[in-house]
Design goal:
single chain; 317 residues
Length: 317
């Protein structure tokens, strides 16, 4: 922690020194870019924008815990701000509002480029919240304002059917379901869509697998159970506290005696197990891919787990 902070401090100091030593040249270069753009020569500012995007993309691909990453991150932000200022001054002839808007839009583009998955999830989450709010306005009798109202349908299943449930997940990896272990029961959490009646299909399919004791929860209870991870995050258990088990040997070991709140996610490459780090200390677990933590933990979406970020900061397919 201290070493990482020192690396960032050194990188910041380096940028400040460079700015002081070459400040006049940077300002002169900025003036040249702006004047050329205003006279119709867009090559300099286009080159600056492409260079900025390139540095930002490279920065997002560098290993997390390296000194180069700290220096490159600070450099990426410096170049991003420098480019935003250049764009702002270029557009200033159209008014201050257009200038500020253009600079802000460019900085937002840099942020999205640096972590596209994370910001895509943020936007989707915002749209879901807006959709939920509109539903509450049109249906004031609905009392739930959880993170995913109208999405989940939950079936409770006795522990005696646990192995059958695992077989179902292994043989039907494309089903929009996951399995969650609780103290006295297991829960099948179905991610519903408007176009397909998945609860009825899951109920019929479970019967084919010999799972005859399904307790279907009401819509409101299903939302609470499906959003349980979201409510846990409000009490301090953040998505970053969870780890994913992908190696068959580790998955099998956890599934032999799963801790409470273990979530089994189906996948075409074999089941993935989502577990709180404190419940599986010392096991060879993977970090969730950066920017996908909320999507995996809250939305129980295993389709985005195409890579795992190892504890040493390296990325493996």
């Amino acid at each position: 922690m201290f070493g990482k902070w020192m690396g960032k401090a050194a990188a910041s100091l380096l940028v400040v020194v460079i700015a002081l030593l070459f400040g006049a040249r940077l300002l002169a270069f900025l003036a040249i870019i702006v004047l050329n753009a205003r006279t119709g020569n867009l090559a300099p500012i286009t080159g600056l924008v492409l260079l900025t995007f390139g540095i930002v993309i490279i920065d997002s691909r560098i290993e997390y815990d390296s000194r180069l990453a700290a220096i490159l991150t600070v450099g990426a932000w410096f170049v991003s701000v420098y480019s935003a200022v250049a764009i702002g001054f270029t557009v200033l002839v159209y008014g201050s509002i257009a200038s500020v808007f253009s600079a802000g839009l460019f900085l937002a583009s840099c942020m999205v480029l640096r972590n596209p998955v994370h910001h895509k999830r943020k936007i989707n989450s915002f749209l879901n919240q807006m959709r939920t709010s509109l539903q509450h306005v049109s249906k004031p009798d609905v009392g739930l304002d959880g993170a995913s109202a109208g999405v989940w349908q939950v079936f409770l299943v006795p522990h005696t059917y646990y192995q059958m449930l695992l077989t179902l997940l292994e043989e039907r990896p494309l089903l929009p379901i996951c399995l969650v272990r609780f103290e006295e029961t297991d829960a099948i959490v179905v991610n519903c869509t408007k176009d397909v009646d998945w609860p009825s299909r899951i109920r019929s399919l479970a019967t084919d697998y010999g799972i005859n004791q399904l307790i279907e929860l009401s819509e409101e209870l299903s939302q609470y159970v499906g959003s349980f991870s979201y409510f846990e995050s409000l009490s301090g258990m953040e998505p970053r506290d969870f780890r994913i088990a992908t190696k068959p040997r580790i998955v099998s070991r956890i599934l032999d005696n799963p801790p409470v709140r273990t979530t089994v996610l189906p996948s075409t490459t074999g089941p993935k197990v989502l577990v709180c780090e404190n419940e599986a200390l010392g096991m060879d677990l993977d970090f969730l891919p950066s920017g996908t933590e909320e999507a995996v933990v809250f939305e129980k979406d295993a389709s985005i787990i195409t890579q795992s970020v190892k504890a040493d900061g390296k990325t493996t397919e």
